[in-house]
Predict the structure of Diguanylate cyclase/phosphodiesterase.
Amino acid sequence: SAKKLGKDQAQVFDVAFIERMNQNWMLEQELQRYLEEDAIQVAFQPIYSVTAKRIVGVEALARWSHAVRGNISPGVFIPIAEEAGLIGALGAQVMRRGCREVAAWNEAWGVSLFLSVNVSAKQFADAGLLAAIHSMAGECGLGAELIHLEITESVLLMDDVAVERTLMEARGYGMGISLDDFGTGYSSLSYLLNLPVDEIKIDRSFINDLHLDPRRVELVRAVLTLGQTLGKRVVAEGVEREDQLEILHGLGCEFVQGYLISRPLESEAMNDLLGMVGKARRDC
Ligand code: C2E
Ligand code: MG
Ligand code: MG
Ligand code: MG
């Protein structure tokens, strides 16, 4: 009967729900263990200047290579870390590793790459966040002005006063503030006027079909104009194709990031890439 069917469905739903809860709980426990063992890895993706024709910075991206489950995507484990109260510890590990690697590359290759790190809204609740980041950079010998904090609009939806205070604190240290995934959240425009944001990263969903959809070209053009008017750097994320890069170049977009330039790399591969680029530069 329909009634019986309904009951069975409810039961199926409950089982699936409980399984998901269990799964999340297990992942939480395991993530905690990996964090305790300092076993969360960091990948680095270059950010490239089209006009200077060189890598100007790298974005640090957390990686979890699970001994049994294989690679778990940040799209899965970052929300789990946020829910479980582990995002502070995770963020600190990514920041520490990032500072260490970038300071070493800058020293070894005579460059001054900046380090971009994603900071979750949840981390902003920690009043000691900026002081901790600042001292970590200092310990590694990386100038605070080479640290860029990538935030999303979810940060800006929080308590205005606390967010503004934290962002001003970052600015006080000379760090850059970058608005990530731009165009996918709410009411970014007033934030751009009122908060100390230095850089806009156009979400890759707008870059995806750039070569197919003239309306997207106009949209990106508008964001570039906005950036220029307000004095903010603009980075295009998710550039995968030569024709997308050409369009962006034609629009005067200076900074790009994406698989076309390079996928996120392990630190050793990133070091090799910087060495190769440095050698090519010296040879010509
Ligand atoms: P995001 O900050 O917007 O980072 C860019 C994402 O786009 C990365 O995914 C990167 O691998 C991917 N990507 C870069 N170029 C291309 C491209 O050309 N095509 C495509 N299809 N994708 C590209 P990833 O590493 O999976 O990270 C996903 C998100 O997880 C990040 O998005 C960020 O919001 C979050 N995340 C990663 N690491 C951390 C972290 O240490 N802390 C926090 N709070 N969030 C993190
Ligand atoms: Mg980012
Ligand atoms: Mg992000
Ligand atoms: Mg993004």
